[in-house]
């Protein structure tokens, strides 16, 4: 039996094939944050190991949190965090705790 080589980083189509699901289903679940993936401009990329962890996990949130360290050096996270706090209308530091 021939072994199929699967790359460490999968495209949307490769992830769809790997999961044996329609592309639309994978895309929908990735957009909702239910499948661990990363949108880069108009393209989606998925770490195979994160997909494997997600499949074997009962809780996809724990998989996403465990993979968060992979993005620690991503400069976009600082801007994203600032945008979130600005949208919430408050600062990152709780004024009631700062004395």
Protein traits:
mainly alpha, 5 helices, elongated, 47% helix, 3-stranded antiparallel beta sheet, single chain, 99 residues
Any overview of this molecule?
The longest helix has 13 residues, at 76-88. A hairpin with a 2-residue loop joins strand 2 (38-40) and strand 3. The protein has 5 helices and 3 strands; from the N terminus they run E-H-H-E-E-H-H-H. Helix content is 47%, strand content 11%. A 3-stranded antiparallel beta sheet has the order 1-3-2. It starts with 8 loop residues before the first strand and ends in an 11-residue tail after the last helix. The protein has 99 residues and is mainly alpha-helical. Helix 3 runs antiparallel to helix 4 (60-67). It has one domain (9-88).
